[in-house]
Design a protein that fits this description.
about 25% helix
């Protein structure tokens, strides 16, 4: 009754991805760049275990897989001397010196779920040697890595499952100085997505992984998702019955987690979904037009997120990880360390790479990168009939995750919990391509 994990097939059914795959639209010919700290020494092995378990076609680059013409590829790009994740943590207090193996689960989550959503797309895992969780000290290297990806035309989509509250930066200018990769991406037809965070309407001053962090006073949003050049991805509780033929049927027998308080709802806003209004970026033009009826008003500053997908740990996804040895992961599963093997994982870090997979499918339909998709998303949402067909409007839930920080409520239309909602992929993606080209 408390938790549920979804297979790739159940997730695809919930968001109506099946008709696209049946038509051969699975991301083939496109590349998703996944940017993470450190990487994982066992990713090629773990991806193969994941694919075998769920009957997903393997990728060239997986452990033990013979490559053939036309196969999608999995590759790794270790920039700026990314260290092995098996290396023990340093005893020094220098930036970036923490348990690198604790990042392996994030890497597995990103790679495996992006591949499950777009099994025909290539995946490039791009790693850097500094932890993003150490304040904002890891961001310069991560942005430099993304600039490299854009300049060398290595991907049409970039997935960022990392974030930091805008207020954690030394100044708004220090944040502005990091935006160059996003500007390049927009100019080169590369779509950049960012998870909106897992603190709801609150923000944290980050510390090394596993050591917590202090909550900033007042509502906050997280960057890069708050950047107008990034598609911010929030999160939901997916309340559907994973065994139903119709993927949007609400589970009325044993609904998991918060779904128990919203009978009949197929999806509700996740309490941890990062969202609110930027303190740095003004409202972009694409949020200044007509919003769907009933939307939460967007004032003078950028509203976050733009869209959402399944993210609640109570309705998470299965991910496989064999690194590190049993009980030595540094990760927490309740009060004890996690074991090697299968994990039921949530967070907007789950929503973002899956959305990246959807964008890769749209890029395939487009025969190339779409670039910044936000203007097209809001254009589609401004037409009532199109909005109703292309999006699942999530109208229940809130992101009041911290008692000391006011939260926001999900509403009809756009809201600071789920954005425009979640995708009806078979309808949205072709329409998105058309809207990018003025249709």
């Amino acid at each position: 009754m408390g938790r549920r994990c979804f297979t790739p097939q159940a997730i695809r059914a919930a968001y109506n991805v099946g008709p696209l795959h049946s038509a051969g639209e699975d991301g083939r010919g496109q590349t998703i760049a996944i940017v993470d700290s450190y990487g994982s020494d066992t990713m090629a092995h773990d991806l193969h275990v994941f694919d075998q378990a769920f009957g997903i076609a393997p990728m060239c680059g997986e452990e033990g897989v013979s490559c053939a013409p036309g196969m999608p590829t999995f590759g790794e790009l270790h920039l700026q001397g990314s260290p092995a994740t098996k290396a023990p943590p340093s005893t020094s207090n220098s930036p970036g010196q923490e348990d690198k193996s604790a990042w392996a689960l994030e890497v597995a989550l990103d790679v495996e779920t992006a591949h499950a959503m777009a099994p025909g797309a290539n995946i490039l895992l791009v790693t850097t040697p500094t932890a993003e969780t150490l304040g904002v000290q890891g961001f310069p290297q991560m942005m430099a890595a993304e600039q490299y990806v854009v300049e060398h035309h290595l991907a049409t989509v970039i997935s960022q499952s990392f974030a930091s509250a805008e207020g954690a930066f030394g100044s708004s200018q220090s944040l502005q100085n990091l935006r160059y990769a996003f500007k390049s991406a927009a100019q080169n037809g590369v779509t950049v997505l960012g998870s909106s965070g897992d603190d709801g309407s609150a923000g944290s001053a980050k510390t090394p992984v596993g050591q917590g962090g202090s909550t900033l006073p007042g509502p906050a949003v997280e960057w890069p998702a708050s950047d107008p050049l990034v598609t911010g991805v929030g999160g939901t509780d997916l309340c559907t019955d994973p065994g139903a033929a119709n993927g949007r049927v609400a589970d009325s027998v044993s609904p998991p987690g918060a779904c128990q308080n919203a009978p009949g709802q197929s999806e509700i806003g996740w309490i941890g979904s990062g969202g609110g209004f930027s303190s740095v970026f003004a409202k972009p033009d694409y949020q200044s037009g007509v919003l769907p009826a009933g939307s939460t008003a967007i004032g003078s500053m950028r509203g976050v997120p733009d869209v959402s997908l399944q993210a609640s740990p109570s309705t998470g996804a299965l991910v496989y990880l064999s690194l590190p040895p049993d009980g030595q992961s540094g990760l927490k599963c309740g009060s004890t360390p996690c074991s090697t093997g299968w994990y039921d994982i949530g967070g907007t870090s789950l929503a973002c790479p899956q959305w990246a997979g959807l964008v890769a499918i749209a890029d395939q339909i487009n025969h190339g990168g779409l670039g910044l998709i936000n203007p097209a998303l809001y254009k589609l949402a401004s037409a009532p009939a199109t909005y109703a067909a292309d999006f699942n409007d999530v109208t229940v839930g809130s992101n009041a995750a911290e008692a000391s920080v006011p939260g926001y409520s999900a509403t009809t239309g756009w809201d600071p919990v789920t954005g425009l909602g979640t995708p009806n992929a078979a309808k949205l993606l072709p329409d998105l391509v058309s809207a990018v080209h003025g249709g």
